[in-house]
Amino acid sequence: MNFLNEIALRFPDAVSFAPGRPYEGFFDTGLVHDYLRRFERYLREEKGFDEAQVRRTLLQYGRTKGIVHELIARHLELDEGVTADPESIVVTVGCQEAMFLTLRALRADERDVLLAVSPAYVGITGAARLVDMPVLEVPAGPRGVDLEALARVARTAREQGLRPRACYLVPDFSNPLGTSLDLATRRELLKVAEREDLLLLEDNPYGYFSADGERLPTLKSLDTGRRVVYLGSFAKTGLPGARIGYVVADQPVADREGRVGLLADQLSKIKSMLTVNTSPLAQAVIGGKLLAHGCDLRSANERETEVYAGNLRRLLEGLARHFPPGCGSGVTWNVPRGGFFLVVNVPFAADEALLEVSARDHGVLWTPMRFFGRGDGADRQIRLSYSLVTPAQIDVGLERFAALVARRVGEGVACAAP
Amino acid sequence: MNFLNEIALRFPDAVSFAPGRPYEGFFDTGLVHDYLRRFERYLREEKGFDEAQVRRTLLQYGRTKGIVHELIARHLELDEGVTADPESIVVTVGCQEAMFLTLRALRADERDVLLAVSPAYVGITGAARLVDMPVLEVPAGPRGVDLEALARVARTAREQGLRPRACYLVPDFSNPLGTSLDLATRRELLKVAEREDLLLLEDNPYGYFSADGERLPTLKSLDTGRRVVYLGSFAKTGLPGARIGYVVADQPVADREGRVGLLADQLSKIKSMLTVNTSPLAQAVIGGKLLAHGCDLRSANERETEVYAGNLRRLLEGLARHFPPGCGSGVTWNVPRGGFFLVVNVPFAADEALLEVSARDHGVLWTPMRFFGRGDGADRQIRLSYSLVTPAQIDVGLERFAALVARRVGEGVACAAP
């Protein structure tokens, strides 16, 4: 992603469909103060803490597994129908630390491998690289995960003496594809995981941002066999600047002495050697936001959800206007039902060189799908992110993108104009 | 350390000389709000940011290397006489993440090993375990580091086909010993590091807490050959609840393509896969505190320094009263010139079993030195931490400790009473 950051710095006036950052229009630093005070009140009134305990909780070193675990459990019950033991929750420095902790715990030696639905979020491949854990790609296919391929990859790995430990995926409005697994696929996936003895690492940063109001149950809420390690993030639903994520790891595991405990406690031990504990001040900000909204993140994000849905509609309308069927541009795209991303297929190589041309000559940035894996067709695919742009930027950005396409496809394609 | 935490929970009324946590008497949650506002003002007035930029800096995803690097550079110039390029600073989630990043960068394969002055802070051995990097112990000896042993350990490792990459130490008021390297030893250590081609990982959480006002130059300030990677922490001088540390890594290093850059940029790449970035909100709290004190942490910590110095005096006086020379108790101790810790030598095994007895029957907690390494004599050594206790607790705690000693040493030692 360094290439993307560099190019964004070099062309600051380009319209950027690249970053998967949340909308900034409702940012308000005053709320941070309100949230901190709200969390202090909770410590006093709900937890019965005296002033010294309140100060110690916010300002001193703290519990390795975190201090907002009970509020997260409330939120999961309310928003997800997931009943999680607060002791099974580890509050982390963003979801990225949760991924690292989980992979580090699952990796005992060089035989342990991770499966990941591909194209995959770069954060998981990065974390896997840090713990020296190879990643075997499982194609997403038309259903969001190719279940036959999943079983095949796991079995082939076992035949080679490897130990496939888990499969990572984003079932809701995935990054980078924007697609979601339907309910039947979710249920089947849980069965395949059971049969192949795999954990599922369910990453859900975008699930609240449904564009049409429909929300499918998370894998974790369908999970009766503790197959799912649930990776949560408040970067999109809370505040990115707090850097608070978490992991629900309610799997029973034995330690070296054979004592059975929660996977969460193994993650906690690793965390004590990695970051000691997550800033209680940063946790308090998220805790305060949860409390301010009755731990209901769906209602807390109504305005944002509307913005993203509106942007998605505008982007889809713009693509349809610039590249109508039969116009010969060869440009097609998927139609996600929510989230931050969609994918455009183009009839030419969409690589770093083209991105450079696009930025320099046309003033528009996007992400080559190649950055997310080696899957078929990725060379001619582009991820467009619509979370951080305004409607006006979407219009201008698409016009510029259409000009890039016209230049590549050739003058013959006259319809690529609005 | 889990055993210590467990025993502290089981005996909440015990006086505890165990935790190395900073004094809580000056904690004030109101200051957090002041610091946040102070940092906002800095962004507006010194950096020239408009309101949208201020909001984005605090609330959005941010720069991987952090946003308080320039203030840290000012502080290092002012308090340490260290001129650090802000680009060589990576702001981390506590010093623990800085250690992890550094070791992960230094560890290319299983031949890379870390040297550490022993007894050593458990954080460094934990981080080394996480990156699968063996730790070779270098005895502290009477000077704080045994320089001949350091060279010998490094050479022996090389003869065995290993690559000793760095030596970790706390030159000022070390954890767990409380001792400091004198100036001559610091200079010689730098020469040995040069000769043996080792980096020095200088960890300095306690340097500001000199009990007699004397402050020796850090290794980094004496380092002309970029041998020192400087590990900084605001947990004791700032606010533990912010979880902000940093590393100055100004060493030139080549990446895989042979391009030379700063070690800090390699650490930044690793950080992007570990925690993405350190909470800008938490950084802003520390940034605000730095600004509120003109980036001078010595003056910012005058009150705390006085508390720690007073506690050290009281502890030393109490030890002298309880265990006067020639009384036959066999109890001796070192006399640190600052910091949080001192070490007591006892004429019996100071292990987990004795700690259990001490907590249950005598109501006093301490840390067996065995937790910090395998060095000679550690079996009969105890770390007493005096940072979190009140003077009254020191008195009561020492009385209880003297009762434990009397029981162990035998009735014959009548002088072990105040």
What integer is the average pLDDT of chain A? Answer: 95
**Amino- and carboxy-terminal Cα gap of chain A:** 32 Å
How many runs of DSSP E, i.e. beta strands of chain A? Answer: 15
Question: What is the helical fraction of chain A, as a range of percent?
Answer: 40-55%
CATH class bucket of the largest domain in chain A: Alpha Beta
Structural class of chain A: alpha/beta
- CATH architectural category of the largest domain in chain A: 3-Layer(aba) Sandwich
As a whole number of angstroms, the C-alpha radius of gyration of chain A is 22 Å
What is the CATH H-level superfamily of the largest domain in chain A? Answer: Type I PLP-dependent aspartate aminotransferase-like (Major domain)
Q: How much beta of chain A, percentage-wise? A: 15-25%
Spans of chain A of at least 5 consecutive residues whose pLDDT stays below 50 are: none
- Could you give the order of the helices and strands of chain A? HEHHHEHEHEHEHEHEEEEHHHHEEHEEEH
Greatest chain-chain interface?
A-B, 53 and 53 residues
Number of domains of chain A: 2
Number of helix segments of chain A?
A: 15
Profile the largest sheet of chain A: 7 strands, mixed
Assembly status: homodimer
Domain Aminotransferase class I/classII large (chains A, B): 52-401
InterPro entries (chains A, B): Aminotransferase_I/II_large, Class-I_PLP-dep_aminotransf, PyrdxlP-dep_Trfase, PyrdxlP-dep_Trfase_major, PyrdxlP-dep_Trfase_small
Protein name (chains A, B): PLP-dependent aminotransferase family protein
Cofactor (chains A, B): pyridoxal 5'-phosphate
